[in-house]
Design a protein that fits this description.
Structural class of chain B: alpha/beta
CATH topology of the largest domain in chain B: Rossmann fold
Strand content of chain A: under 5%
Structural class of chain A: mainly alpha
Shape of chain A: globular
Order of helices and strands of chain B: HEEEHEEHEHHHHEHEHEEHH
CATH superfamily of the largest domain in chain B: P-loop containing nucleotide triphosphate hydrolases
Distance between the termini of chain B: 33 Å
Largest interface: A-B, 34 and 43 residues
Number of helices of chain B: 11
Strand order of the largest sheet of chain A: 1-4
Helix content of chain B: 25-40%
Oligomer: heterodimer
Radius of gyration of chain A: 23 Å
Helix content of chain A: 55-70%
Strand content of chain B: 15-25%
Number of helices of chain A: 14
């Protein structure tokens, strides 16, 4: 068949637009050069000095932003609301925490080879699941492997049974809660309700120095930016469009010859692994991990960050994590009793008035300005 | 059924189950004397049937939606299905496409593929495309992306991650865009299309799959007269190359496209023939006008 008028098919979208790349490079420079210089070399009295408190806070928020990004892949793009991402975050954190506990060596309160809490429980040797905790390389592998494997197995059975929507959310919440109860118990070997703390070293270097904090900050920033690029390349591929298709009309996807199970399972596992990495970066910066990280509120908060920023935009959830956590650290200092009311009100306001989040609002304003400009230009001949 | 027929049947079953002694059968010891070899995934239409349903039964909570339904479709045929609401038209399509499992009965695609052994994506890949009653397109994707997703290609995760449209595929895409009259809307969001355009986009997505059999559930619902006429033209041009099964209520549309019309009622075939024959049938009139 011949085509009378050749049709211009749209070219595939670039990984990032030109301005997108510029913004990306600026962000990279800020994280890798500007922040370290302002923190380490600018004297403390100067107005430009970046305080250690700010470094710790921003580093923490960047870990949260990775979680929000992971949440966007599974909720924003695939339409599966997970209330279990706090678990994957905590698992990555616990793997890192086990390594850091072993790095304490004999410098603990009891001067024993074993971590303090084991001495306290009168354990004579390391439990089996601590076997790899002395190796940093094994720790790096386990940080992604443990959350990835658990997500894979859980996801396989949940998606195969075609569990969807609110039922899936409830089951993930239940899974997280069950894990929290398990980690609270002393006999499971994860330090009970105190978790792990009092870290001394990482890779043999002292952990609490200003330089080490800065290094972890830079690493977290680079990871966040790298994950952003990874997520962006995933969602702009045909794979990402199938995910959006699953979100909008799953039956059509099946009748087009795609089996949704491997697609959901892949993005779910990737998302869990990202959260694991975020948790592993979080623990050495905050200096503690305990089962509280698996509480229901934490997982729900991740969803709130994504919703506030704007789902299915990638940049939105990152912005959302910064906005909500920035507001949190400010409000918990100035008016601590109002924080939870504020969070609830924010969620209701976003759901009612900003279904596309902050990014949607910015886009709408930009469009309005553009049309206004066009109409004034059209009016003046 | 007469006793001698029963004997005949018993003999046939016995001869099938008993292993034939080597050299004693006409086919030289092979299990069957057919000269064709069944290839997995390939539709065998040598017997002149692309779709074959026999004695299919489905009930939902005691309600018999499909009641001993038997129906077959020839390759290249355009079959229209009509029937009052609740006759089981959509349920029949659900069974063929793997969405609903029948309680009993057989459903074959060609002579070799048992559709009851496959799930929805497998059936779609085998070459059965389906259009839903309510137009179902991916609203948040553009017209172009909708068609690209439907394209016949490897549909695994890995091949989707590294998928790039080659020139033959883009030609095919452009051709379909032209056929469904959406060439000017390539970059538009599917959610912003009119109802009739969505119907066409969905038909276009079926064409991208290049199916051997198309099941179309009320394809012209909500279309203007002009769009309906164009759709009729499109279906007539597809006839011969593809087999089509069209469920419709619009009688004038059916008159334009139909050869054989099957009337379904209470989950079984009530009458079959040309539209005039069917419309003259007293049982059909009774069903449509009420008792």
């Amino acid at each position: 068949m011949t085509i009378p008028n050749p049709i211009q098919l749209p070219a595939p979208a670039p990984l990032l637009t030109r301005s997108g790349w510029s913004a990306f490079i600026v962000a990279l420079i800020v994280v890798c050069a500007v922040a370290p210089v302002l923190n380490l070399w600018v004297p403390a009295g100067s107005a430009l000095h970046l305080s250690d408190y700010a470094v710790a806070l921003l580093g923490k928020i960047m870990c949260y932003a990775i979680c929000a990004l992971a949440m966007d892949l599974i909720w924003g793009y695939t339409g599966i609301l997970s209330l279990g991402h706090g678990l994957f975050f905590a698992l990555g954190g616990y793997v890192m925490g086990m390594y850091l506990m072993r790095q304490i060596g004999r410098d603990g309160n009891y001067q024993s080879d074993l971590p303090d809490f084991m001495v306290f429980l009168d354990w004579k040797e390391l439990p089996w699941h601590w076997a790899l905790s002395d190796s940093f390389v094994a720790t790096l592998v386990l940080i992604v492997a443990v959350p990835g494997l658990i997500a894979f197995v859980f996801g396989y059975f949940a998606f195969r049974s075609r569990i969807k929507g609110v039922y899936f959310s409830i089951i993930t919440q239940a899974m997280t809660y069950a894990a929290m109860l398990l980690f609270f118990r002393n006999e499971t070997g994860f330090g009970g309700n105190n978790g792990f703390t009092d870290f001394k070293r990482i890779l043999g270097q002292p952990i609490a120095t200003q330089n080490m904090r800065m290094l972890l900050f830079v690493l977290t920033g680079i990871t966040l930016l790298a994950f952003f690029l990874l997520a962006r390349s995933l969602v702009r591929s045909k794979f990402g469009r199938v995910l959006q298709a699953v979100r909008d009309a799953e039956s059509r996807v099946m009748f087009s010859g795609y089996s949704p199970l491997p697609y959901k399972l892949t993005i779910w596992t990737i998302s869990a692994m990202m959260c694991g990495v975020a948790g592993a970066l979080y623990v050495p910066q905050v200096g503690i991990i305990n089962p509280g990280e698996m509480s229901a509120a934490n997982s729900i908060e991740i969803a709130v960050w994504a919703a506030v920023g704007g789902r299915a935009t990638l940049i939105g959830p990152i912005a959302g994590a910064f906005i909500v956590n920035g507001a949190k650290s400010w409000l918990t200092v100035t008016a601590p009793e109002f924080w939870l009311y504020f969070l609830g009100a924010l969620f209701i306001a976003v759901t009612l008035f900003l279904p596309d989040g902050v990014v949607g609002l910015v886009k709408k304003l930009a469009n309005r300005n553009k049309t206004k400009k066009q109409s004034t230009e059209g009016a003046a001949p | 059924m007469t006793p001698d027929l029963m004997d005949e049947g018993a003999r046939r079953i016995a001869s099938r189950s008993a292993p034939a002694a080597l050299g004693q059968t006409e086919s030289g010891g092979r299990a069957a004397g057919f000269s064709r070899i069944a290839t997995p995934g390939e539709v065998d239409i040598a017997h002149g049937r692309i779709l074959y349903l026999e004695d299919v039964n489905v009930s939902f909570d005691g309600f018999k939606a499909i009641n001993n339904l038997s129906l077959d479709i020839a390759p290249g045929e355009l079959r229209c299905i009509i029937g009052p609401n609740g006759a089981g038209k959509t349920t029949m399509m659900d069974i063929i496409t793997g969405k609903t499992r029948p309680d009993s009965g057989t459903v074959y695609f060609g002579s070799t593929i048992d559709l009851l052994r496959h799930n929805e994506p497998e059936i779609a890949s085998l070459g059965i495309g389906r259009k839903f009653q309510k137009p179902t397109v991916f609203e948040q994707l553009t017209v172009f992306e909708n068609l690209e997703l439907a394209l016949k290609t490897h549909k695994g995760v890995k091949s989707s991650m590294f998928f790039k449209l080659d020139s033959a595929q883009s030609d095919r895409l452009a051709e379909v865009l032209h056929t469904i009259h959406l060439a000017d809307s390539v970059a538009r969001m599917a959610g912003n299309l009119s109802h009739g355009q969505k119907q066409w986009l969905e038909i276009g997505m079926l064409l991208m799959q290049d199916p051997k059999l198309l099941l179309l559930d009320e394809p012209v619902a909500g279309m203007t007269d002009e769009e309906t006429a164009r759709t009729a033209e499109l279906f007539l041009s597809l006839k011969g190359k593809h087999s089509l099964m069209v469920v419709e209520h619009d009688m004038s549309f059916i008159r334009t496209i139909s050869e054989i019309v099957t009337v379904l009622c209470d989950g079984a075939v009530l009458a079959q023939g040309t539209l005039d024959q069917v419309q003259a049938d007293e049982r059909v009139i009774e069903v449509y006008l009420g008792r």
